[in-house]
Design brief:
Layout: H1 2-22, H2 25-33, H3 40-62, E1 68-70, H4 74-86, H5 90-110, H6 113-119, H7 122-144, E2 147-150, E3 154-157, H8 162-179, H9 185-199, H10 225-228, H11 231-258, H12 264-291, E4 296-298, H13 302-307, H14 313-325, H15 330-333, H16 338-353, H17 364-379, H18 383-400, H19 409-423
Length: 425
């Protein structure tokens, strides 16, 4: 009995640790999706609910210590590429998210996921992560006010206003805490900047700190699946599914590797859970779209909970319960300004940039397409456009070299879809 309670205590601590490292999404996701015109209070609630449901499903059915929430990069694709970039309504964009989740689920059931993963060169996969990281960091710098629009040079350095200094203070705190490996650095940095903003009268406390009046109706059940089911949107559906797939596979494999087991059999059992986890990832995405948020996916921050001793599904369930508790603080969360969450975006971008060292820039055949993906995701302000241009350039280089055998059938399909996506813009 004592062993049971000791294990339970460890799992609770691990679940709390995971929550603290990823709770920043409660603040950041509404800020990103809010630019589409979606109701911010409803977005806060839905972010908590989607994160809770996805994490609890993992805990119950996969029995793994891995938490889920709306994914960074995927929410930027939703807001800046689909809605603002291609002038798609957020309702239709939610329909696209649902269809991408459905496609992901079908591919997982049919076992076709592996073929798609193997068709894309590793250098291009790393480039996508780097490009999205650069893009997210740019959004953070803009939200902070450090980068602004400039008629002469397109973008330029903004003025060092009080709110910029508040954002920078939060960023510095995050960096220092990350250096000393303090859990919840991003969350604490957001709190710190918000408190300074409150003390400086740039924001005001809400009429009530907590509330049980939770209303998700402004965005829930508003997805337009029929409107999203058009040939012109298939490229976007595929791009979103593709991003979620590789993000999920990479995250899950990395986290499962951290799950230590003294017996080899136990470790192998965790790997057998991979398909189950991917299926839950897809289902969570579809459910999230119904509720009113962008793609829900596994979080690499789950590794913090695993490091804290989390080994079972109880860890994920605890994380999910803590997300549900966040619902009562919606009024307080709603006052957090964009320049307070901006440092978290910059830090996430920094984390994603680390994959650049995995790209072989000495091999021009793969270095150039990777470069195109990285630079065009940021400069075109479109993740899907950057990916499409990178895939097309990779295939074109192989064709010019008459290396048709190095282009797998799936890659031909991806390239054709990329061309179709760009032409239909």
């Amino acid at each position: 009995m004592q062993k049971f309670f000791n294990n339970l205590r460890t799992e609770i601590i691990a679940g709390t640790t995971t929550f603290l490292t990823m709770a920043y999404i409660i603040f950041v996701n509404p800020q990103i999706l809010g630019v589409t015109g979606m109701d911010k209070s409803a977005l806060i609630a839905v972010t908590c609910i989607a994160s809770a449901i996805g994490s609890i499903l993992v805990g119950i059915f996969a029995r793994s210590p891995i938490a889920m929430a709306p994914g960074m990069g995927l929410n930027a694709f939703f807001a800046y590429s689909l809605v603002l970039g291609h002038k798609i309504s957020w309702e239709t964009a939610l329909g696209i998210v649902f269809l991408s989740g459905l496609l992901f689920f079908v591919l997982t059931l049919l076992g076709l996921r592996k073929k798609i993963v193997e068709a894309i060169p590793q250098s291009l996969l790393f480039a996508i992560s780097v490009g999205i990281g650069l893009f997210i960091a740019l959004i953070g710098l803009v939200n902070m006010g450090l980068v602004v629009k400039n008629e002469a040079t397109l973008i330029g350095l903004g003025k060092f206003t009080p709110t910029v200094f508040i954002g920078l203070a939060g960023l510095i705190l995050m960096i220092v805490m990350e250096i000393f490996r303090i859990q919840g650095a991003l969350l604490l940095g957001i709190f710190f900047s918000t408190i300074i903003a409150l003390l400086s009268d740039f924001v005001s406390l809400p009429g009530q700190i907590v509330s049980t009046n939770i209303n998700i109706l402004p965005i829930a059940l508003k997805l337009d699946i029929i409107g999203a089911f058009k040939w012109s949107f298939m490229g976007a559906v595929f791009s979103l599914m593709f991003m979620d797939m590789f993000d999920s596979v990479g995250t899950l494999v990395a986290c499962l590797q951290k799950v230590e087991g003294q017996q080899k059999k136990k470790k192998e059992e965790h790997y057998k859970n991979l398909n189950t986890l991917l299926g839950i990832d897809a289902l969570a995405t579809m459910l999230g779209a119904v509720l009113g948020t962008s793609t829900t996916t596994a979080y690499i921050e789950s590794g913090a909970g695993i490091e804290a001793g989390g080994r079972k599904g109880t860890t994920a369930i605890v994380t999910g319960i803590l997300f549900l508790l966040g619902l009562i603080f919606i009024p307080l969360i709603g006052i957090v300004p964009a320049y307070a969450t901006a440092p978290a975006l910059i830090m996430v971008g920094l984390y994603m940039l680390k994959d650049i060292v995995k790209i072989d820039f000495n091999n021009l055949e793969e270095a150039f397409p990777a470069f195109i993906i990285i630079i065009m995701i940021a400069l075109s302000y479109s993740i899907s456009a950057g990916m499409a241009l990178g895939f097309i350039s990779f295939t074109l280089i192989k064709i010019l070299q008459l290396k048709f055998g190095e282009i797998k059938l799936t890659m031909w399909v991806i390239t054709l879809l990329s061309i179709f996506f760009l032409v239909m813009q």
